[in-house]
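Hello, quick one for you while I still have it in my head. No rush at all, and the record is pasted right below.
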Amino acid sequence: MDMGTYFKAIFLLLIFLIPDAVIAQIEVCANCKVTSIANAINIADSGDTILIQSGYYREHELLIEKPLKLIGVDAPIIDGEKSGSVIRVLSDSVHISGLAIRNVDVSHTEEFAGIHLYESDHFQVKDNVLENMFFGILIERSDYGEITGNKISGESKEDFNAGNGIHGWYSSHLTISDNYIRDLRDGIYLEFVDHSFISGNRSIENLRYGLHFMFSNYDDYEDNEFIDNGAGVAVMFSKFINMRRNTFYKNWGTASFGLLLKEIYDAEIEDNIFEENTVGINIEGSTRVNYRRNDLIGNGWAVKIAGGCYTNIFSENNFSFNSFDLSYNSKINDNKFEGNYWSAYVGYDLDKDGIGDTPYRPVKLFSYIANRTPESIVLLRSLFIDILNFSEKVSPVFTPVDLIDELPKMERIK
């Protein structure tokens, strides 16, 4: 071996060995040499691990400005005593797990949080319990982070003094998965958050939305549950969105919906369940959205389409036992409905190919009337309304002539 190769080998060996040699563990407990988390953070070097043993720690505004791991052992409780935020992170490569964080201060001028990350890339926040939060986990200008397996709850009863469970702003490449969030303003709120993956979260009984995101592009939302929130999910001013296998259930109220799409472009809405919502899907000004294999069951309105919605395709969806399958407020239609199952369809299938021999017209005249005069809903089951709907079906005047499903399925699509 020549000298150049020898020194190169030594150099590479040092790169791999030295970091492990200098990384230390600092233990925090009532009987340890270090008894406070703040002190442990102050004396730690970059890359150290702080093990926080089970116990009760009254600490707040813990500031992390270097790469560290904070790991709770047997769920130590950190009580912020309603004095600002509990943990603030201003460094890359920070890991926080296994902590029980409580009592964040409520403010109308500042966004206090259980864990607040600012310009922190490659972070991990995992398996923590955050109770009595204003904001739970607040992420600002931070990329390539994981927020996984946390339980976040609040106690506010009105929007004006409640924050969000997981709040992301101007960030990208986030993974938000398997969190349980309840009793906040919005369960998850994302603004200017791109290229992110939101999966397996359960967001229930929040005051406003289970999930709310705006100006956030190229994101995937899969296998989440949004149950009994003020409204389910609001998606606004975003493009290239994929929403698959989510459940929108019992988001019920005078202005509630399972999913609101406003100014959305180039999205895929597939294999979701919309059940017992006031409105299953409420669509405004959204274009080139594909709705496939969704189940819309027992909603007031399955789908409401307002103006400015073009080149959308509804195919292989199940419209089952909704009060209204479709509401449409324009006589012009550029959207396609094909191969859906409609429980209200009463056509026949003489050739037994599973497709109705006559087209189905899903927009009823009464849904048009109820949109403009909500008080008329009391007439929903009357014979007079049945006659109105039949006359509009025979000779459309108020509803789009070409808004029909030419290939309605005879049986529910599995």
About this structure: The helical segments are 3-22, 37-43, 365-372, 383-394.
